[in-house]
Amino acid sequence: MIDDLDETIRQLLMDEMRIKAGEIDIAFDQPKRDWSARLSRPTINLFLYDVRENVQLREFGWDAVSESPADQSASRKMKPLRIDCHYMFTTWATEPEDEHRLLTRAMMALFRHPEISRSRLKGRLKEQAFDIRARLASHDKLANPAELWSALDNELRPSISYMITLTMDPWEPIDDPIVRTFQFDLAQVEADEETAVATPVDKPDTRLTIAGMVRRQEDQAPINKARVVVKEMDAVGFTGGHGRYKIKGIMPGEYTLDVRLLTGESAQRKIRIPAPDGNYDLEVK
Predict the structure, then answer these.
(1) Which of 74, 142, 162, 225 could form a disulfide with 67 if both were Cys (CB 3.0 to 4.6 A apart)?
(2) What is the crossing angle of helices 2-17 and 96-111, to 10°?
(3) What is the pTM of this model?
(4) How open is the CA angle 54-55-56, to the nearest 5 degrees?
(5) pLDDT band at 72 (very low <50, low <70, confident <90, very high)
(6) Alpha carbon of 119 to those of 125, 134, 279: distances in Å?
(7) DSSP readout, 44-108?
């Protein structure tokens, strides 16, 4: 993926600076002394010196990948990582004025693209979950270039930080059964002084969350934006993706589910909560 980023940057500079073939080289080499001594024409170099996770953009949790109503399963995977790629951006030419002119042209080209459009992305970068953003000449990056040049055994020269944030998704999807009923019990407890075992002092207050699907009867197509009501409790849920709804805070018992569509159609169904088969689906003619 980082090789695709290199090619994206190369093509961006060539397009924005209108570089003709063979006029200027664009390299991603480690700028050691022996490398710079071999240069024969003006060169723009972007040395990738650091790669690390952007913890400020880190997201926890899971993303739903797909659902299969037929076998009552769903696929999910962890949210992708955000990675900062830090480049040291330098230019090389025989004369200082040519070098500075090339540096200015390249900086103007990169400054025009704080976000690299998807039409410019190469290879696997086209599959990025988030937009690719870039920061050029940031004061808090590449804080001490003298140390880096010393480690490269080369002379200190104008060097600019260029940071690009990528998305990396190393996770594989995990298949899980779809949860239809979730039970939550609340009770006051009292601990035994000798055994420290806690036991309820009254009957637990049981509350359940139910989930189901609303479909068309004729073709079993899921229906989104339908309103589902547990009539006896006036508890409401709305269908979203795949026609699924969820209603919380229901006590065990027998109820009537009422579904109404935006088009005015409706249907009802008698259910017991918790249902022995875990089925709270509704069909509308």
Answers:
(1) 74
(2) 110
(3) 0.66
(4) 95
(5) low
(6) 10, 16, 46
(7) EEEEEEEEEE-GGG---SEEEEEEETTTTEEEEEEPPEEEEEEEEEEEE-SSHHHHHHHHHHHHH
Its sign, for the CA torsion 19, 21, 23, 25, is positive
Whether residue 239 is predicted with pLDDT greater than 80 in this model: the reply is yes
Token duo for residue 213: 């699907």
Encoding tokens for residue 206?
Answer: 């049981």
Q: Between the CA atoms of 225, 231, 233 and 237, what dihedral angle is there, to the nearest 10 degrees? A: -10
Peptide bond into 274 cis (omega under 30): yes
Following CA atoms 36, 37, 43, 48 in sequence, which dihedral angle do they give, to the nearest 10 degrees?
-10
Q: Kindly tell me the burial class for residue 212, based on how many C-beta atoms sit within 10 Å of its own C-beta (0-12, 13-18, 19 or more).
A: buried
Q: What is the DSSP letter of 277?
A: T
CA–CA dist 275, 282 (Å, integer): 14
Place 66 in a pLDDT band, splitting at 50, 70 and 90. low
What is the pLDDT confidence band of residue 71, given thresholds at 50, 70 and 90? low
- The answer to whether 208 and 250 are in contact (CB under 8 A) is yes
Placement of tokens 């589902």 in the chain: 228
280: helix, strand or coil: coil
